[in-house]
Amino acid sequence: MNYVIGLTGGIASGKSTASDYIRSKGYPVLDADTYAKKATAKGGPAYQGIIDHFGADLLQDDGEIDRRKLGAIVFNDTSEREVLNQLVHPEVRRMMDEDKERLAESGHVFLDIPLLFENGLDRQCDLTLTVYVDQETQIERLMERNGFSHSEALSRINSQMPLSEKRDRSTEVLDNRGSKDALYDQIEDFLVRIEK
Ligand SMILES: CC(C)(COP(=O)(O)OP(=O)(O)OC[C@H]1O[C@@H](n2cnc3c(N)ncnc32)[C@H](O)[C@@H]1O)[C@@H](O)C(=O)NCCC(=O)NCCS
Ligand SMILES: Nc1ncnc2c1ncn2[C@@H]1O[C@H](COP(=O)(O)OP(=O)(O)OP(=O)(O)O)[C@@H](O)[C@H]1O
């Protein structure tokens, strides 16, 4: 059987680290963040709607949306985040579904979707895989990777379903509190199991 596997986690919990490893083993991984970047890029299907709502102040000199500015708005205001979600998510879903249908014909497909449970997309997956870390580690890694202050990191974390809830709802859990190698070992075990 070919599985559609939803890979999720919290911000900076290690989804991309897991995805990169899974890709290196030859499996296709579709990344919702990449589709969202396409949808919001200049000329993308959500671009004009974002400018109409949030204003042209958001634009950089090259006409692209300043993601840090938009992030500062939406990660501190639930209703503004909801507006952005409604502009971007249908486009992401449409593009991703097309690619998923095509790839699922020839083997397992992984969908890396940060908001998998928030948006009920777990229902379209045969298995769900959550990359879990404790909140202290998550904040540390997020601050380090993005150069965020503690409060910037926390506002992003608080924009998502608690990671412990995702872990509990998931059919499989990858514990990423240890080293990257420890994460890769767990992925290896999982890949062996789905090939059986
Ligand atoms: C607000 C934006 C411009 C900030 O861009 P930035 O480059 O700083 O972050 P990036 O896109 O790399 O996202 C990083 C992480 O933030 C989290 N995140 C992003 N958007 C959201 C959201 N709407 N709600 C909760 N968490 C989110 C995810 O864990 C994601 O992996 C951007 O995240 C965006 O356009 N978000 C709306 C689209 C979306 O929901 N994307 C997430 C998956 S579809
Ligand atoms: N086990 C680990 N040990 C140390 N650092 C790690 C580990 N796993 C991931 N990291 C680092 O933590 C940061 C976040 O990881 P990653 O980018 O994979 O998370 P993500 O869940 O994809 O984030 P986002 O939600 O923002 O897309 C990166 O800088 C990554 O190199």
From TrEMBL:
GO molecular function: ATP binding; dephospho-CoA kinase activity
Main location as per UniProt: cytoplasm
Alphabetized CDD domains for the sequence: DPCK
Residues annotated for ATP binding in this entry: 12-17
Biological process according to GO: coenzyme A biosynthetic process
Keyword terms: ATP-binding, Coenzyme A biosynthesis, Cytoplasm, Kinase, Nucleotide-binding, Transferase
One Pfam family here: CoaE
UniProt-recorded name of the protein: Dephospho-CoA kinase
The organism of origin for this protein: Salinicoccus roseus
Lineage summary: Bacteria, Bacillati, Bacillota, Bacilli, Bacillales
